[in-house]
Amino acid sequence: MNRTNMAILLARPMDQSDPLLTRAADGYAVDTVLGELLRLGVFDEVVISVPEETPEAIREALSGMKHAKTAVSRHSTPQTRLLRHMERHELASVTVLTSYSVLMDAAAIRSGQEAVRADHADLYHPGDVIAPKFFTVLNRRTAELLHESHRTPLPPFVFAQKARQFAELRIEAEQNMESPRERFLWELLFAGERNAVPQGVAEAFLSKFTGSDRLARESFDTFIQQRYGLHSPELLDKALRLMSPYDPSLRTAMQINQARRLCAHLPEHRGASLEVGHGKTPLTSLLLAHVFDEVHGADVYKHSEQGYADSLDFLRLLGESGMAPLSGDAVRYEADALDKRSRFFHGELQAMPLAPESIDFCHSRMVLEHVMDMPGLAAYLRRTMRPDGVMLHEIGLQDHGDLSHINFEFLSHEPRQWQAMKRGTNLWRINDIAEMFASEGFDVSVIERDVRLVPPRSLHEHWKNYRDEDLYCYRAVLKAVR
Fold first, then answer.
1. What is the 3-state secondary structure (H, E, C) of the chain?
2. Angle at 324 between CA 320 and CA 326, to 5 degrees
3. CA distance 42 to 69
C-alpha cells in the first residue's frame, strides 16, 4: 500500500466563485502552488475530488488544471470520498488539501507526512491557522473512523477535531506556523469572507515569490506585513495582546470587517446606531462611532466593562501602529472621543431606555437566532427605529449543538418543544424572521442566503410546508428599512 505520495484535494465547487478557481497570471492560483509542491517532491500526484452535483461547467473549468486530475465521485460527503480514494489507490496515508490551498508550507507538510508514515501519529495537522495554510495528513484507519461515525458532510477543516473523539488515535499539530499578528492581517484581508485569498492578492503573492519561496512560512509573513505597510508592528502586537483574553485574532478581525461591511448600508441620517448583542469587546460599534453621532448596544450575557475599556485601548494602538480600520467618506469623527459617544447596556434589549424613533441604524451578527422573544424584539425595534432607519442582521441558522459542520438535526423538533429543552437557539427560519419584521411595517429583503440541503435523520411534521431554501438556509443577512 501507499504506492504513491498522493494528495487529495477535497472540494465542492458549485460556481465560478469557488476559491479553487481563483485565477493567477499563469492559470489557477491553487494549480500553480500544486505545481511547485510536485516539483519539490512533496507530492508525486494530486487528485481533485468533487461530488457528482458539481455543475458541468465547473468540471470543464477544472479540466484546465495542469498539475492535478479531477475525479468525480458519486459520494457527496468529503469523508466518504476521501476513504474511497484511499481504497482505490491502496493508500496507507494521504495528505488532504482544500480549495483554499494557496499558502502551502512545504516544511510543515513534510513533517506531517513523516510523522504518519513512521507511525508516530494517525493524523497530523497545522493547528489553528488560516484556511489557505490548512492541510491534514492521515492514515487509512483515521479515514475509516471519520467515515463510519458521521453521516453529515464533514469539511476537512474539522477532521482533526472529530478524530479526537477516538481515544485510540494519536493526533499531532504543527506549532508556530503563524503569529497572532500575521493571522490578524490575513483575516483582515479576507474581509470575513470564506478565508480565500482574493484573486489580485494571490497573483501578487505568486508574482513576488518564485520556486520554493512560494512554499515557505517566512514568505507568507513578509508578504502580508508589506501589504499593510506597518510602520510599528510591535504596537500591533501590543494591541492584539489586549484582545487575547477575550477573543482570538480571528474574531477581532471579523469585528473590524463587520464594521466595514455595515458601512455599505448606512442610512442617510447618521445620528445613532444600535447593536443587538455587542459582546465583551464591542469593536464593531466603537468603529461605527467614527460614523454616527452616538452608538448604543445591549447584551445579556457577554457585556464586560473591562472588555469595553480594552477595546478603546486596542483601537488607539491600532491607529498608532499605522492601521486604518475604516476608510472612505463614511468616517466623520476621529478616534479620540469614542468613549464619550458610546453607551452599552447589560440586559435585554427591550429593557434599554431608548427614546421612540431615536435609532437610525440597527445591526447584529449571529444573535437573532438566540433571541427567545422575537415578536417582542421586533415590536421594540419598530418603536425605536426612525422612519427610513435601516437594520442589517447576519443570522446563523444551523444547528448550534455542533458548529464544526453544517447540520440541521434540530429540525427533528418543533419550536416550542425545542425551546422547552433550553438549547440556546429559537429555531426561527429565515422566512419566519423576514415575515415577522414585515408584519411590523419594515420593508424586508434577504440580501445574502447560504443554503445546503442536509436533512436531519427525521424531519418534524411542523416543517413540512417550508421551502428548502428557507428550511436549510444556514446563514443569511437580512436588511429591513423602517
1. CCCCCEEEEECCCCCCCCHHHCEECCEEHHHHHHHHHHHCCCCCEEEEEEECCCCHHHHHHHCCCCCCEEEEECCCCHHHHHHHHHHHCCCCEEEEEECCCCCCCHHHHHHHHHHHHCCCCCEEECCCCCHHHCCEEEEHHHHHHHHHHCCCCCCHHHHHHHHCCCCCCCEEECCCCCCHHHHHHHHHHHCCCCCCCCHHHHHHHHHHCCHHHHHCHHHHHHHHHHHHCCCCHHHHHHHHHHHCCCCCHHHHHHHHHHHHHHHHHCCCCCCEEEEECCCCCCHHHHHHCCCCCEEEEEECCCCCHHHHHHHHHHHHHHHHCCCCCCCCCCCCCCHHHHHHHEEEEECCHHHCCCCCCCEEEEEEECCHHHCCCHHHHHHHHHHHEEEEEEEEEEEECCCCCCCCCCCCHHHHCCHHHHHHCCCCCCCCCHHHHHHHHHHCCCEEEEEEEEECCCCCCCCCHHHCCCCHHHHCEEEEEEEEEC
2. 140
3. 17
β 473-481/443-451 pair status = antiparallel
- What local confidence, expressed as pLDDT, does residue 168 receive? 96
Domain ranges of the chain: 6-181, 243-481
Q: What is the largest CA-CA distance in the chain?
A: 72
User: Do 93 and 2 touch, CB atoms closer than 8 A?
Assistant: yes
Q: Band of the pLDDT at 1, cuts 50, 70, 90?
A: very low
Task: State phi, psi for 284 to the nearest 5 degrees.
Answer: -60, -50
The whole-angstrom separation of Cα 161 and Cα 285 is 33
Q: Which CATH superfamily is domain 243-481 in?
A: Vaccinia Virus protein VP39 (3.40.50.150)
pTM for this entry: 0.88
Q: What is the pLDDT of residue 299?
A: 96
Taking phi first (over 0 means left), then psi (-120 to 50 degrees means alpha), and beta for anything else, what does residue 150 get? beta
Burial of 78 (0-12, 13-18, 19+ CB in 10 A): buried
CATH code at 6-181: 3.90.550.10
Assigned C-alpha cell, 105: 508550507
Is beta strand 93-98 parallel, antiparallel or unpaired with respect to 123-125? Answer: unpaired
- CA gap 4, 323 in Å, rounded: 47
> 128 vs 131, 134, 166, 181, 413, CA distance in Å?
9, 9, 20, 14, 34
And the C-alpha cell for 168?
485510540
pLDDT tens profile 70-110: 999 999 999 999 999 999 999 999 999 999 999 999 999 99
Judge whether residue 336 has pLDDT over 90: no
> How far, in whole angstroms, is CA 351 from its chain's centroid?
32
Domain 6-181 and domain 243-481, same fold? Reply is no
Q: What is the pLDDT of residue 337?
A: 84
